[in-house]
């Protein structure tokens, strides 16, 4: 994977967290920049760690599935992409996952960050099979998520949940494209 593919992957991986942040930003009258940045950093850190863990699992499994790794990458990306597209089409009238920054609900904030990064774990598995520099990819995913969550919180009441859902739809399409390209590259050799 080249730099641009990893950048697109990072942006795609951050779209579900962005959608959640936008939905939360809608319910806030105003969001302090520092508060939004703290939440963005938390989501970014979680989103950096999960593909690293997935990569470790994928690296261990690589010796058992090496001849089919391109198919595994394709299936993982296809599944995640379809899931993101499906989630982007769900009704969002008040059903957005809640983000909050109060100390009392810090555990809920961490749970939300983890729930939006489960797909990054699966992508980490795929990246191990695709022989990608996982530290660079995970860092890019974390930075993209931090920025997207911060922006989503700050602009949520201005841009609305519809934009967040469209970003998630686009992210799903990007993941499917990456899976198809990976499969094509391996089959055309």
Task: Please sum up the structure shown.
By secondary structure, the chain is mainly alpha-helical. The protein contains six helices and no strands.
Radius of gyration: 16 Å
Helix content class: over 70%
Estimate the global geometry from the Cα principal axes: globular
Helical element count? 6
N-to-C span: 16 Å
* Most strands sheet: none
Query: How many beta strands in the DSSP annotation?
Result: 0
Mean pLDDT: 82
- Helix/strand class: mainly alpha
Q: What is the number of domains?
A: 1
What fraction of the residues are assigned to beta strands by DSSP? under 5%
The low-confidence parts are none
What pattern of helices and strands is seen along the backbone?
A: HHHHHH
Keywords:
mainly alpha, 6 helices, single chain, 189 residues
How would you explain this protein's 3D organization?
The two termini are 16 Å apart. It is globular, with a radius of gyration of 16 Å. It has one domain (3-187). The chain has 189 residues and is mainly alpha-helical. It is built from six helices and no strands. It has helices at residues 3-27, 33-65, 69-89, 106-115, 118-129, 134-187.
């Amino acid at each position: 994977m080249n730099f641009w593919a990893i950048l697109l992957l990072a942006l795609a991986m951050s779209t579900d967290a962005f959608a959640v942040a936008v939905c939360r930003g809608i319910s806030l009258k105003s969001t302090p920049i520092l508060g939004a940045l703290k939440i963005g950093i938390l989501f970014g850190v979680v989103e950096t760690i999960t593909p690293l863990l997935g990569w470790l699992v994928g690296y261990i499994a690589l010796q058992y599935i090496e001849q089919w790794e391109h198919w595994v990458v394709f299936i993982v990306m296809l599944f995640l992409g379809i899931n993101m597209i499906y989630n982007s089409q769900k009704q969002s009238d008040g059903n957005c996952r809640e983000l909050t920054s109060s100390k009392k609900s810090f555990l809920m904030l961490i749970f939300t960050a983890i729930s939006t990064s489960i797909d990054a774990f699966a992508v980490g598995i795929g990246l191990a099979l695709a022989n990608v520099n996982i530290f660079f990819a995970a860092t890019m995913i974390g930075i993209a998520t931090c920025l997207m969550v911060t922006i989503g919180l700050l602009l949520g009441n201005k841009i609305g949940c519809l934009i967040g859902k469209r970003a998630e739809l686009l992210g799903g399409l990007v993941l499917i494209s990456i899976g198809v390209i990976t499969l094509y590259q391996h089959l055309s050799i």
